[in-house]
């Protein structure tokens, strides 16, 4: 894929966020990485979706330096850069402020796996990262957001596989999702929002609702993603 083709892919993925109702105004962004070239392409900062073009997508080096003459990249670019560094399997990253996911993030709670719809895509709870400290916010805020997400997945007794749980909430902020490419990352962001909405409704019906049985969620995740997956028509 050429750089121009990657810019078109990222542009269309950003528009897809609008189509899916995951963003309003300029509240979101999609990026994708070309690891062979060592570049990341991302939405420009503060540019309305109905005003931008594929040519406006910003090409950055893997350390976040934009090409000369480019528009200013999304302010969340340093978070994306950190996620690409931490999660080698990620080919694209999505950030939104989708309503139900933000509700969980503002409550500082992970989204429990209450049923099979969730388990089809996310292998367990979608975690909520800890709140950033005043020092982290006052310093390199966006980079530190990425570092806190990495901490959420790696610094625990049982690390979380970012390929099996391709999304996270950042406390008081909102969701990030990722995937092997832009199409899958947007899909995961949309599923994350729907899981957040379903969980809110479930807990409204029964505040004591418990996570689904592990044998059931294992079945649903592994029939789609395991080495013996049988969902769909194959490749």
What do you see in this structure?
The chain is α+β, with helices and mostly antiparallel strands and 235 residues long. The protein has a single domain (3-225), classed as Class II aldolase/adducin N-terminal domain (L-fuculose-1-phosphate Aldolase). Helix content is 40%, strand content 14%. The chain has a seven-stranded mixed sheet, with helices on both faces. The mean pLDDT is 96.
Number of domains: 1
Beta-strand content bin: 5-15%
CATH-defined superfamily: Class II aldolase/adducin N-terminal domain
Report the total helices: 8
Q: Identify low-pLDDT runs.
A: none
Overall mean pLDDT stands at 96
- Coarse shape: globular
User: Largest sheet, order of strands side by side?
Assistant: 3-2-1-4-7-6-5
The CATH top-level class label: Alpha Beta
Class of secondary structure makeup: alpha+beta
Would you tell me which CATH topology applies?
A: L-fuculose-1-phosphate Aldolase
Helix and strand string, N-terminal first?
HEEEHEHHEHHEEHH
Please give the alpha-carbon distance between the first and last residues. Answer: 21 Å
Q: Strand count, sense and closure of the main sheet?
A: 7 strands, mixed
CATH architecture grouping: 3-Layer(aba) Sandwich
Percent helix range? 40-55%
C-alpha-based Rg, rounded: 17 Å
| Count of DSSP strands | 7
Offer a concise description of the structure.
With 235 residues, the protein is an alpha+beta fold. The protein has one domain: 3-Layer(aba) Sandwich (L-fuculose-1-phosphate Aldolase), CATH 3.40.225. It has helices at 3-19, 77-86, 99-107, 116-119, 134-138, 141-154, 182-205, 214-225; strands at residues 28-34, 39-42, 58-61, 92-96, 128-129, 167-170, 174-179.
């Amino acid at each position: 894929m050429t750089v121009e083709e990657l810019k078109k892919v990222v542009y269309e993925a950003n528009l897809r966020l609008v189509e899916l109702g995951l963003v309003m105004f300029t509240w979101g962004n999609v990026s994708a990485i070309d690891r062979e070239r060592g570049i990341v392409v991302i939405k420009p900062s503060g540019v309305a979706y109905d005003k931008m073009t594929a040519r406006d997508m910003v090409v950055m080096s893997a350390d976040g330096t934009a090409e000369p003459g480019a528009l200013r990249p999304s302010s969340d670019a340093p978070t994306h850069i950190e996620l690409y560094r931490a999660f080698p399997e990620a080919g694209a990253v999505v950030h939104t402020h989708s309503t139900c996911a933000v509700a969980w993030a503002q409550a500082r709670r992970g989204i429990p796996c209450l049923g099979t719809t969730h388990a089809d895509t996310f292998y367990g709870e979608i975690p909520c990262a800890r709140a950033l400290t005043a020092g982290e916010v006052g310093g390199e805020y966006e980079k530190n957001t990425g570092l806190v997400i990495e901490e959420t997945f790696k610094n625990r007794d049982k690390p979380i596989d970012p390929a099996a749980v391709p999304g996270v909430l950042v406390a008081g902020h909102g969701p990030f999702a990722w995937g092997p490419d832009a199409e899958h990352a947007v899909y995961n962001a949309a599923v994350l929002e729907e899981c957040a909405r379903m969980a809110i409704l479930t807990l409204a019906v029964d505040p004591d609702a418990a996570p689904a049985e592990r044998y059931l969620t294992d079945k649903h995740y592994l029939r789609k993603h395991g080495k013996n997956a049988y969902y769909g028509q194959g490749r």
